[in-house]
Amino acid sequence: xxxxxxxxxxxxxxxxxxxxxxxxxxxxxxxxxxxxxxxxxxxxxxxxxxxxxxxxxxxxxxxxxxxxxxxxxxxxxxxxxxxxxxxxxxxxxxxxxxxxxxxxxxxxxxxxxxxxxxxxxxxxxxxxxxxxxxxxxxxxxxxxxxxxxxxxxxxxxxxxxxxxxxxxxxxxxxxxxxxxxxxxxxxxxxxxxxxxxxxxxxxxxxxxxxxxxxxxxxxxxxxxxxxxxxxxxxxxxxxxxxxxxxxxxxxxxxxxxxxxxxxxxxxxxxxxxxxxxxxxxxxxxxxxxxxxxxxxxxxxxxxxxxxxxxxxxxxxxxxxxxxxxxxxxxxxxxxxxxxxxxxxxxxxxxxxxxxxxxxxxxxxxxxxxxxxxxxxxxxxxxxxxxxxxxxxxxxxxxxxxxxxxxxxxxxxx
Length: 413
Ligand code: UDP
Hints:
This protein is α/β, with parallel strands linked by helices. It folds into 2 domains: 3-191 and 387-403, Glycogen Phosphorylase B (Rossmann fold, 3-Layer(aba) Sandwich), CATH 3.40.50.2000; 204-385, Glycogen Phosphorylase B (Rossmann fold). The protein has 15 helices and 12 strands. Strands 2-1-3-4-5-6 form a 6-stranded parallel sheet, with helices on both faces. Helix 12 links the parallel strand 11 (330-333) and strand 12. Helix 2 packs parallel to helix 15 and helix 4 crosses helix 5. The radius of gyration is 21 Å and the shape is globular. Uridine-5'-diphosphate binds at residues 42-43, 46, 198, 226-228, 257-259, 289, 297, 316-319, 322.
């Protein structure tokens, strides 16, 4: 039986794996450090948990560091997050002070590792100031943005840009997010791990057992949105869409599954809004799942006829990829990274309102052969574009470029 990275050959082919080894050859022994602000919850943690072990297996000395802070730090970075995604937010000096001090405190501990690294990859705004706190750094530093920064609230971007611009390169998920910066910007889309518990095939009995556990009727149609309770994910809009759709499909059920990222202080308030909007409708299931409920999420996505991701801003939307990979049409908000993944009428539908989402739910549930056809294409689209092996290949290529820039010629196989 194949082990480690070789296991992916069954999904993407042997050549893809050989190419990864080839690209990783010149990077063997290099020290790479990823830095973010949470080990669980949300897309960044999801990706790093899979990417880091594979980079290690390819012989790259990779580590993953997590910075930690107090309430004020997370309030500040949540404001950054909201501001970068276009909301008007306040940046009182007290919060910025907490942000800078938290980074300074984390730098005390991380400085030796970061300064010795060949490549440091800073994920999102939380650890962005670290670069200014590591004056003797020897490697290349890259800022990886996972957020929809197509129309940032200017004061927030102006403040963060001071830090971002000091990096040697940045990575965005799509061209719409690129910003005027004094370095090269790489466009790399995120990915899912097809062999993770969240995405592997599941036995039908396990899927049925999950439905039974939550009292969801397997005989009735069901749509699901898996998301942190965040206003940009528009969970209240999802409930509205469901309510409109039930006029035509009275048996419809809605599952809203979420948990809380440890770095998100707004989750509880949004959850209250969601509960209020759902009222006492017994066909709406609001599930608060622990961070390791990967198989449960997998089962819910597989049990659903349609996966929803009605975000109004979305950096990429791994939940979209997860839904597509399970052969489900995705009805997604017409925004950010969802547009990369949901091709109208091909892999799902892009919508701009609850009414639009309701109309598409109705259409798909009334045209089951279309639903299956779109679902089939959805899975193949992910296989071609959004699996971990492609993501890894692009990271390796970027790292080769950064570490061998002076050689004038780099063989990418
Ligand atoms: N997720 C999870 N539990 C939850 C909510 C989300 O495991 O309660 C996972 C979800 O399956 C996906 C990731 O967290 O893998 C969310 O990534 P996405 O890019 O969709 O959104 P983000 O949270 O990063 O904005």
